[in-house]
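Work Package 4 report. The design task specified in the project plan requires that, given a folded chain encoded as structure tokens, an amino acid be chosen for each position. We show below one input record used in the internal validation round.
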């Protein structure tokens, strides 16, 4: 420890961002420990026989110019015609220029990002609905005038007498959409994702993810467009287009990892953290082990952790006091299963004469099925699919590591996925060519449970460790997207470079602002 050294736990978006920011600023020694052999965490890309799987779907769009520029510095933006100098990323009412010094990039290059169109819809009763829901004739035709009048009346009742204080996710949805729309389009899907009733989930989740969306604001925008032909540029809705690496999100982080190592950083794959030793309020060393059981000790002047907080607290030696350790041990998570299904084509009933629909995601609201969303990987990037004459789908199931769904064998999960696609009328079993299963533990930090209600006390104790910095999704137990994780990592790196600044700025990321798919700001 004669020279300053930083140890980073995890090679996902947060860990790699922190590592690169430190090295770019001239920090002398930086080591990243990654427990798996893969790079990118939940943002990695898995290659199955040339067909690539994006775990959960990652749109590369941020309201932070710093993040957008950081991505473009790693992978330049290209258009099919090679005119990236004039490329613009569109979102409702506004645009952003993406070219500049990256004008030489073309789609023929491998190390690029593509500009992709966004479309996600809700599938219910054999029909597709806009996501997010939009009032209009399409909704009336599919749900019927009487049902839509009930939706409108329910919304007006909620708007006249909103639930106060707004404590649960159920309160949040009802206040913005009305009880009837909540029951029809939000309750079942959300509870499928989280595995608990909406009334048991903290309203903070809604505030971070869909703060500015409501049926009232959507109706106002629709009416304004009819009357004036314009939308309100000060209140944007979801993005219309986004950036996406040619070969999936993992390409971004594998390229970032290569730069990290080329700058002298040490990246150790397959080394999982076992113990974190501290002296009073300072971390002194970290002990990790590889798959063979070999253990190694690492000293560090500063430690950046992106590992799940529950595991972090349990690894501390000596352990935190009993109340603090109890909070950490009680934190809950949701796990994630992706079943990749390769078809010749989707059902003509939904795809028409095309091989597949145009959606990135399809949100499944149908009762009686376990699948929550379906990704159409062809629409994220055509280069995600080995054979362009096939359709590569990712069926997303939400589970917990001790439930029956997680315990199912791979063959049983494949059979379940194929059966539900047939049941939904999205794809016929006879068109199936291949299938695979991918499991992702701790994909979502839980915003529920008694421990989560006491999270602030755990955070305060961990922030009291002078040279430990938490960032990322699981590192902060916060539903961060990758741009939020990157911003928290940037601030952690700045705090280290400044000799240990307050953690308040790190925790301020993704707490007060609108969801990242809203209008951009500079930061």
């Amino acid at each position: 420890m004669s020279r300053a050294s930083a140890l980073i736990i995890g090679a996902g978006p947060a860990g790699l961002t922190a590592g690169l920011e430190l090295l770019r600023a001239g920090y002398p020694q930086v080591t990243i420990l990654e427990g798996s052999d893969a790079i990118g965490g939940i943002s990695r890309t898995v290659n199955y026989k040339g067909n690539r799987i994006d775990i959960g779907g990652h749109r590369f769009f941020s309201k932070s110019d710093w993040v957008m520029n950081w991505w473009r510095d790693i992978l330049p933006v290209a258009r099919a015609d090679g005119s990236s100098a004039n490329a613009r990323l569109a979102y409702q009412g506004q645009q952003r220029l993406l070219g500049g010094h990256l004008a030489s990039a073309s789609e023929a290059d491998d190390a690029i990002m593509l500009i992709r169109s966004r479309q996600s819809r809700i599938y219910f009763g054999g029909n597709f609905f806009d996501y997010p829901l939009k009032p209009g004739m399409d909704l009336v035709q599919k749900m019927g005038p009487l049902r839509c009048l009930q939706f409108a009346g329910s919304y007006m009742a909620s708007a006249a007498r909103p639930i106060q204080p707004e404590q649960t996710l159920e309160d949040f949805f009802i206040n913005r959409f009305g009880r009837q729309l909540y029951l029809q389009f939000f309750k079942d899907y959300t509870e499928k994702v989280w595995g608990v009733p909406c009334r048991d989930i903290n309203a903070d989740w809604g505030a971070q993810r869909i703060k500015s969306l409501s049926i009232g604001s959507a109706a106002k925008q629709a009416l304004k467009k009819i009357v004036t032909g314009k939308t309100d540029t000060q209140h944007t809705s979801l993005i219309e287009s986004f950036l996406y690496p040619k070969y999936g999100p993992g390409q971004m982080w594998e390229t970032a990892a290569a730069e990290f190592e080329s700058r002298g950083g040490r990246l150790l794959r397959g080394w999982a953290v076992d113990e974190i030793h501290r002296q009073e309020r300072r971390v002194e060393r970290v002990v990790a082990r590889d798959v063979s059981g070999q253990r190694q000790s690492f000293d560090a002047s500063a430690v950046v952790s992106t590992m799940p907080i529950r595991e972090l607290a349990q690894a501390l030696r000596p352990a935190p006091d009993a109340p603090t350790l109890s909070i950490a041990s009680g934190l809950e998570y949701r796990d994630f299963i992706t079943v990749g299904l390769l078809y010749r084509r989707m059902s003509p009933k939904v795809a028409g004469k095309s091989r597949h629909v145009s959606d990135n995601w399809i949100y499944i609201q149908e009762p009686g099925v376990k699948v929550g969303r379906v990704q159409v990987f062809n629409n994220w990037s055509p280069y995600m699919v080995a054979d362009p004459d096939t359709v590569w789908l990712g069926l997303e199931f939400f589970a917990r590591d001790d439930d029956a769904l997680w315990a199912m064998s791979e063959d049983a999960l494949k059979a379940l996925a194929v059966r539900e696609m047939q049941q939904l009328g999205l794809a016929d079993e006879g068109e199936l060519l291949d299938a695979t299963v991918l499991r992702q533990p701790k994909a979502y930090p839980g915003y529920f449970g008694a421990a989560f209600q006491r999270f602030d006390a755990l955070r305060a104790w961990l922030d009291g460790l002078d040279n430990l910095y938490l960032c990322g999704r699981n590192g902060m137990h916060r539903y961060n997207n990758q741009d939020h994780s990157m911003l928290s990592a940037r601030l952690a790196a700045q705090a280290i470079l400044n000799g240990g600044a307050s953690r308040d700025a790190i925790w301020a990321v993704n707490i007060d602002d609108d969801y990242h798919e809203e209008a951009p700001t500079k930061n």
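The longest strand covers residues 432-445. Validation will be extended to a larger panel in the next phase.
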